[in-house]
Amino acid sequence: xxxxxxxxxxxxxxxxxxxxxxxxxxxxxxxxxxxxxxxxxxxxxxxxxxxxxxxxxxxxxxxxxxxxxxxxxxxxxxxxxxxxxxxxxxxxxxxxxxxxxxxxxxxxxxxxxxxxxxxxxxxxxxxxxxxxxxxxxxxx
Amino acid sequence: xxxxxxxxxxxxxxxxxxxxxxxxxxxxxxxxxxxxxxxxxxxxxxxxxxxxxxxxxxxxxxxxxxxxxxxxxxxxxxxxxxxxxxxxxxxxxxxxxxxxxxxxxxxxxxxxxxxxxxxxxxxxxxxxxxxxxxxxxxxxxxxxxxxxxxxxxxxxxxxxxxxxxxxxxxxxxxxxxxxxxxxxxxxxxxxxxxxxxxxxxxxxxxxxxxxxxxxxxxx
Lengths: 140, 219
Ligand SMILES: Nc1ncnc2c1ncn2[C@@H]1O[C@H](COP(=O)(O)OP(=O)(O)OP(=O)(O)O)[C@@H](O)[C@H]1O
Ligand SMILES: [Mg+2]
Description:
The complex is a heterodimer of chains A (140) and B (219). Helix content of chain A is 49%, strand content 20%. Chain A is built from five helices and five strands. Chain A has a five-stranded mixed β-sheet with strand order 1-2-3-4-5. The termini of chain A are far apart. Chain B is of the alpha+beta class. In chain B, 47% of the residues lie in helices and 17% in strands. Chain B contains eight helices and five strands. Chain B has a five-stranded antiparallel β-sheet, covered by helices on one side. In chain B, helix 3 packs antiparallel against helix 4 and helix 5 runs antiparallel to helix 6. Chain B is elongated and about 60 Å long. Chains A and B meet through helix 2 and helix 3 of A and helix 5, helix 6 and helix 8 of B. The structure holds adenosine-5'-triphosphate (ATP) and magnesium ion. The site of magnesium ion has 5 residues of chain B, from helix 6.
C-alpha cells in the first residue's frame, strides 16, 4: 500500500542496513519491522544496522518499535546496532527518560560497520602504505 | 515603531490579508527577530518563516512571491485589491490539526516544526517541542480519537503554546502516570511524564468527558 514510502532495506554482505529518513508513520514502522524480520529469517543475516541520521523526530513510540525489532532480530540470531542519532534527538529521548533497551548505539555508520567487524579497505591501504614507507626508510 | 519605509511597506502588504492590529504584530515580530540592522535578504527570510503558518500550503508560493517582490526586487507589490487567493488566518488565532488517526501525526509535527522556525527555535529546543507535540497527539490517536491539536504563537509572552484536546474517556490513573508508577500495557508509559520534562509549562485536566493538555515553551 505504502510501497513508495517504504523504508529501504539494503543488504550488505551478511548485514542488513536500514537508513531511516524523515518522519516515518506507524504504518511504515510496522511494515519495516515485518520486512526486516522476514529478510533476517530468509537470508540468515547476523547483523542489523539502523541508521537514524536522517530522522526528524524520535518519540517514545518509535523507540519502542526499535526495541521490539531488535529483540525479535536477536531471537533470530541477528544483533542490532543503531547509528547516526543526532545530538538533539539523543538529548531529547534522554530527557524523557527513554531507554533503548540495551540496543548498542554508535556515532556513525562507519562505527557501526566496524563494530560488526567490517573494515574499510582504505584503512588497510593506509596500513600497508605505512609499512611500505617504513620499509623504504628503514636502514637495511 | 514601524516607521521606516520597509516597515510601512510590509505593514501595508500584510494589512491586505489580515486585520491591522495583527499585521502590526507580525511585522513587529519580523523586525524583532531579524534584528534592527537586518538586510532585506534577512527580513525576507524571517517574513517568509513568520507568515508561512498562517497560509494554506498551496497558497504559500503566492505569499512568498509577494514578499520577494517587496523585499528583494524593491517593487511594491501590485497595489490592487487584496488577492483573493492568499488567505492568512489571523495570528494568535489557533492553527489547528484534527487528529483522527495516527496518520495525522505527521501533519501535527510539521506544523510544530514550522512554529519553531518562525519563533527562531532550533536544535535541542525545537526537537523537544516537536517531540512533545508528537507524544500528545499520539495519545489522542491511540486512546481518544478524534481530537485536536491547536497551536498559538504568543508574541507578547514569547511562548509557543499548544493545546491538545479530545473527548475520550479520560485518564483514570493520571496521578500514577505523572509520577511514573503507571505500567503501560500499550507503550513505554513515558509519553506524558516525558513530555512534562520537555516543556516549560505543562497543564493537564482529564475526566470522563475527555482530556485537555496545554503545553508551552519559551523562545
Ligand atoms: N488522551 C488520552 N485519553 C485517554 N487515555 C489516555 C490519554 N493519554 C494517555 N492515556 C492513558 O494514559 C496512559 C499513559 O500515557 P503515556 O503517553 O504516558 O504512556 P503510553 O501512551 O502508555 O506509552 P508511550 O507514550 O510511552 O508510548 C496510557 O497508557 C493511556 O492508558
Ligand atoms: Mg503515549
